[in-house]
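Data deposition worksheet. Section B asks for the primary sequence of the deposited chain exactly as it was used as input, without tags or linkers unless they were present during the calculation. Section C holds the resulting structure in token form. Section D is free text for depositor observations; keep each observation to a single sentence. Incomplete worksheets are returned to the depositor.
Section A, Depositor: J.P.
Section B:
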Amino acid sequence: MALLLYLDQNYLSGIVKRKPAFRELEPVLRAAIGRGAVAVAESEVHRLESAARPDLPVLELLRELSAGLTLPNERGAVERNCERRLETILERDFPERASRASDRLDVYALAVALPHCRLITCDAFMADVVRRTGLDVRFRGELFTGRRADVGRLRRRLERLPSAEPRRRLAGEGPRHEALSAQCTWKNAE
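Section C:
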């Protein structure tokens, strides 16, 4: 069964910029995707965050890795509950922290990714927020920050994943993979 992976902007830009830890991660990530062990999902947040840096081909990399797989844009009751829990922790545990636009995007992205993805990357602050909510435990998600040790931990995790059936394309349709969340969709990758 393929595990669904959410790569945040930090991981994607780290790969694009060829930073050392991410340079080591990229071939392992591509190999895991190639053998069907993991699938990368796009989110609406990726498009919004990438607009700030049009000089970096982050979206192109993401589309290549995801093959058009997207997380739902519409938030259901589960995602809204996750969003409320994340916001509650931010307000309760970090009242001195000035509200940032990036925090709002991170909360939205994580509220959608947590119920659907088993492997999730985010910054260290948001990983702390998620852990305080217990949502990582509830959804059996593994969090990886952009710190070198966590990038290495994700690389080792991907290396250990068993192969799954390769993706199959049906005539006129995008790729399919039964192990992926039923609420994720494939964009027609033409």
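Section D:
The chain has one domain: 3-186.
The first strand starts at residue 3 and ends at 6.
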